[in-house]
Each structure stands twice: as C-alpha cells, then as structure tokens.
Amino acid sequence: MRHQSATAHELARIAELAGLPGETLARLGEQMERRELEPGEPLDASGRFGVVLSGMVRGQAGLLRPGDTFTESVTALMPATVASCERAVYESFVGLY
User: Fold this and answer.
1) Which residues contact 10 (CB under 8 A, 6 or more apart)?
2) 45-74: per-residue pLDDT in tens?
C-alpha cells in the first residue's frame, strides 16, 4: 500500500499551522501519515503530532473535530481521517517560523 500524506491545502486549514508558508506545509504534509479510522478504532499517537482532517475523535482533551490537533492517543467516534508525524518532525518545521 502506498503511503498517503496530508496535503498543504488540508494543513492550511489547521489554525496552529495556518501561518506557515505553502512550501513548508507541503513538505510537512509529505512527512505526515494519513489514516482512515473506523468508529471505535484507536490510534496511539504518543510522541506524535496529529491533526483531525475529517470526522470526530475523542482524546484526553475531549472531543476533537476537523482542524483540531492532538499529541495523545485518540479513538474515532465516527469515520474519521487523521494525519500525524513524529513530534520532532513537526517541531523542526514550526521551529523555522
């Protein structure tokens, strides 16, 4: 199966990332792994930076919707699409700005 990443357009809709240049978002997106989650499916995101692209998930911080970010394990409440990368990768991109 081919690795699917997040697109710069999807990441630009994330408030925490909206100020990054398009080229930086595209490079970050290439480092992110996209996952389609079924209702009740967990994702262990410990040590990772993740974004909700569609659907809803629940994490330690509560209910997360499209545009929300997470750094802990989450569980899909409905079909959901998330993208994540190692926390250090995320920090290397946002640390430039």
Assistant:
1) 29, 51, 53, 83
2) 999 999 999 999 999 889 999 999 999 999
Q: Are 32 and 70 in contact (CB under 8 A)?
A: no
What torsion, rounded to 10 degrees, do the Cα atoms 46, 47, 51, 52 define?
Answer: -10
Q: What is the pTM of this model?
A: 0.90
Comparing CA positions, the residue from 3, 85, 82, 10 lying closest to residue 42 is 82
Token pair recorded at residue 93: 């991109």
3-class secondary-structure state, position 47: coil
Alpha-carbon gap, residue 38 to 29, rounded angstroms? 22
pLDDT, position 59: 93
Distance between CA atoms of residues 38 and 77, nearest Å: 8
- The β-bridge partners of 51 are 69, 83
